[in-house]
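Marked as duplicate of an earlier ticket. Keeping the data here for the record.
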Amino acid sequence: MVPFNKVIVNVLLAQENLISTHLFQLSLEQEKIPSKLIPALSFMRIDEQSEPDKEFIAQNLKRVLSSHNACNLYITQGFIWQNPAGEIDNLARGGQR
């Protein structure tokens, strides 16, 4: 058996955010509420100090939103992003990082 490492744990923890936002988006579609799901991993990143990479976020969020400019409601995840290595990372909970 392969032991879990931080990368595997982060990927597993991210699934809750990914699945719940996808289900919420499907619910909005069923109710015919115009919206667009934009994955946080397509625009959210932290730097080496675990702080938001504001330049990366602004540039990529602008790119993502410009491809869906007819939409007024966007759904995304709130606890996941990419770390500097490009891996899925999660909001530190309980003071742990």
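See parent ticket for discussion. Residues 6-30 form the longest helix (25 residues).
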